[in-house]
Each structure stands twice: as C-alpha cells, then as structure tokens.
Amino acid sequence: MSAIERRVLDFFEKNIIWFLYGFITIAALAIRWQFIEWESPDYISYLGPWFEELKEAGGIRGLGQSIGNYNVLYLFLMALLTYIPLEPITLIKSLSFLFEFFGAFLAVLLCREDKKGLANITSVMIYSVLLALPNVFINSAVWAQCDFSYTAFVLLSVCFLLKEKFSLAMIAFGIAFCFKLQAIFFLPVLLVYYVVKKKFSIINFLWWPGMWLLTSIPALLMGRSFDSILRIYKDQVTLYNWLTLSYPNVYYFFQKTGSEPEAYANFSKMAIILTMLILAVGCTYAVKKRFVDKQKDLLLFSTWCLFTCVMFLPAMHERYGFAAEIFVVCYAFSDKRMGSFAAAVLMNGVTIINYIGMMFWTIQVPYYILTVCNLAAYVLLTYLLLKQGIQRSNILTETVPNELNGVPT
C-alpha cells in the first residue's frame, strides 16, 4: 500500500461518521426527489394556486391580499420563492425539505449524550431515522406539506430551554406558532417549565405574540388588514365541524359517515373541556415530580402533552400528530428502553399506514384498528410518565435523608 493510499484511508477512517452523515443526506434527498413532481390534492387545491396568486400579485406585494389560510410567515417564504425561476411544486417541496434537515439536525443536538459530539453512531441513527421515516418524507415530498417547519422550531425551543436561554426558547416557540397553530400544543410544557424552574419572568412569554407581530409586518406593509391576519387561525379552528378528520383518535368511535356535524355539535365542547382536564392533571403531576429537570423527562412530558392534544381535541387532521411523532422518536433514543421504542413504533406506524392509505391507496387498514393502536400508544406513554414520576419520587426520598445527615449525594 502506498503512502498516499494509506493517508487517504486513514483520513476516511478518522472521519467515517461524517462521510456517513453525507451519504444519509444524499440518500434522503434522493428518496424525496422521486416524488418531486407528485401533485397531491393539497397541492392541486391549495398550495399550487396560492403560489400562482402570489406570483401574479407581484410576489411580496401579494402579501397584501388575503391569499390562502396559512399564516403570514409561510406565505412570506412562499412569496420569496416566486422570484426563483423553477417549477412551483419543486420550490414548495424544497422548502419543506430544508425544514426536515434542519429539524433532524436539531434532534441530533437535543438527544446527543453528555460530553459527546455529533460523530457517534447514536447521533447518526437519530438523524437517519427521522429523515427516513415514511411519514416524514411523505409529508413533504408527496403531500407538499410543511409540518416539520413548526416542529423544528419547537425542538429548537427545547434545546434553548435545556441551555437555560429562556428568551431564545420563547422566540423559537413564537416562530413555531407563526408557522402552524398546532405549535400551541407545546404551551403546557412551557408553563410547567416556568412554574418548576422559576428562573425567568412571565414577561418572557410576550416573545410569543411578539414574534407573531414581527412576522406579520411584511403583510401589513403591503396593505393587508390587521383584522384579516388575526382571523387566520380563528378561521382554521372553525373551518371543519367534525370531531376527527382522518386522525385515529378517541372520537372515531363517536361519529359515523353522514353524522359528523351532529356529532361535533354534541361533543366538541365536551372534548375541549376533557382535554383541558387531562392536561391540567398531567401538568400538575409534572410540576410535583419536576419533569423538566432532565432532558429525558422533558422529552417524555413534551411527547405526552403533544399526543394528548391530538388524541382528545376535536377536529384533528391526520397531520396534526406530526410533532408528537417526532418527539417520541427523540425520547426513545434518549431513554433507550423497550417501552419508549415501542411507543415510537406504534405512533409512527399508525401514521405511516394512514398516510400511505390516503396518498397511494395501497394499504387500507380499518380506522378502528388504527384507533386502538393509537390508544395503546397513549396508554403506554402515560404509563411511562407515571413510572418515571414514581422513580423520581424514590430518588428524591433517598436524597433528602442523606442531605440531612450530611452525606454527599
């Protein structure tokens, strides 16, 4: 073997993890590119026409009009894309791809082990799993949706919380909210963190509406009324009068085809109250057990809150569980136990089957089976939460007497 060949092999061996990151990135892009021209119903009916309307109205100037029912931040990015001379579907999906890679990188940062960098097999596995999950690339490459946009910034918010950079955490949460209303499902976690840690002022929460106002400025400058921007999320909430819209949660059993509006009228308010009650109990438990002290506990509680919202709130779409499905993967890799991986497989498995059935009409599983599987995943997550709380109580019980006796802990 020549000296040059040996040096090349030594360099490759020393940096093999980074080469693996590069290969995974290229492979993930290749998978997505296979579907780049696939026109989903959402693209045909909504995203594509919105893009054309913005382009015809002059790109950024089009923000002054009430185009689409997405919030201003996403429409602003779409308006910027209109200046690029490529096919609209390619531009829209490529934007979603960027959020996916950004979100996968944040997950690696969030889940890496203490005092370890990114060049390890566990980090590579997190990165590859999140990018290879069918529900992730179907969401962007097939559906042309952007649910990793708000999810990535919720992940960023958690990263800042763990670093105790509270203003940045609230700014990241505010940006997540500006992308999608579903980011609000993470609010209980922030409230519990605020109560338990007592390290930042409630004034920090003003960053949330502050970011909404800041990202609304381009549309306001272009002439869009403040009232119409305010109505975007309100109109989204009241648009569909069904207890569940293709999401296999508990309300699948409460409605049948043809009776959706009636079921919604009878049970929707009860569903909202029930969700608030479950969250209140869960948040109280999290405060008592200090579930925000450690990374693993924070990921578990965040997953539970996100999943509780989509399992018990009315009018949930099939995509609204996206953040919970990403967070449960992060929690599984942090926890590294069979129960957490089982929850991740159940939650993502249900969504993968649901997505494939809706997009490709190939795997058709009855919704009651998917609902039962989702309920099993929720029960398992709740069990893990309770079990972790009991373990934390035991640790605290053992620690306090030792501290009283002057024994280092």
Identify the notable features of this structure and list them briefly.
409 residues; two-stranded parallel ribbon; single chain
Can you characterise this structure?
- It contains 17 helices and two strands.
- It has helices spanning 3-14, 16-33, 41-56, 72-81, 88-111, 121-132, 134-142, 147-162, 166-179, 187-197, 207-221, 226-239, 260-289, 295-312, 322-335, 338-359, 367-404; strands at residues 244-245, 316-317.
- Strands 1-2 form a two-stranded parallel ribbon.
- α5 (88-111) runs antiparallel to α7.
- It starts with a helix and ends in a 5-residue tail after the last helix.
Could you tell me the mean pLDDT?
A: 91
Rough outline: globular
Q: What's the Cα radius of gyration? A: 23 Å
Strand order of the largest sheet: 1-2
Low-confidence residue ranges: none
* Share of residues in strands: under 5%
Q: Which percent bin holds the helix content? A: over 70%
| Largest sheet descriptor | 2 strands, parallel
By DSSP, the count of extended strands is: 2
**Discrete helix count:** 17
Distance between the termini: 55 Å
Structural class: mainly alpha
Secondary-structure element order, N to C:
HHHHHHHHHHHHEHHEHHH
Strand and helix map with partners:
Layout: H1 3-14, H2 16-33, H3 41-56, H4 72-81, H5 88-111, H6 121-132, H7 134-142, H8 147-162, H9 166-179, H10 187-197, H11 207-221, H12 226-239, E1 244-245, H13 260-289, H14 295-312, E2 316-317, H15 322-335, H16 338-359, H17 367-404
Parallel strand pairs: 1-2
In short:
The protein is 72% helix and 1% strand. The protein is mainly alpha-helical.
